[in-house]
Hints:
This protein is an alpha+beta fold. The protein has helices spanning 52-79, 92-99, and strands at residues 4-5, 8-9, 86-91, 104-108, 111-120, 123-128, 143-144, 151-152, 159-160, 166-168, 177-182, 187-196.
Amino acid sequence: MTEREEGQERFTEPLDAADPRFIGPRTDEPLPPRDRQLVRSRGPGGESADSPAVRAFRIGLPLLVLAGIAVVVLVFAVGLSPGPQEAVVGPVEAVRSAVSRRPQRVCFHGNNPCAWLTLRDGELVAFNTNGPLPQEYGRQGVGWCPTSGWFGSNATGSRYDQRGRLARGPARRGLDRFALRVDDAERLVVDFKQLTAGEPGFTTGPPQPPDGPDCQQIPFDRQADLRL
């Protein structure tokens, strides 16, 4: 028999069963032997062929992601808290005696925020040296005029009377106030985290009259810091 029988090719590999020339293998000839190599099953229940390093990575990566999420949550829940922002000024009576002559300035760790300590109706109060307007912050904050006894900002022209109420200017409210407390040692403590907004200008009535001429430009007071 020739290699072609009735126009059809003898079976060779690779084969295509849809080829009309395919007549199949000779039944009287055995198939050639093939080398076969058994491989480990990876089906359900079978032993994983991954290396120990790959298995450790698959287990460790989710744990690492969960740990990162926990750290982020912890930072936003606790870590961003600035903690106490208090300044111990000194014995209450000594502070009262010092500010009875003129307002005194107290700062948190020698920097902003700062407060003007003074007496209002015989009670100690701490006015924020940052005014209500953004232009009245920091170095352009609220100073004290020694002739009038009023507080004011040179940057905006706002003026506040001895009680911290708005006297005139573009500001719409009086000076904000920090919370004060007395500790167990009878020392005055300024809490710079607790701030009360000043009274709106249209509800406070007329300002307290100045003690003297107003300052056109309030000088920077280098002697204002309270030292007991």
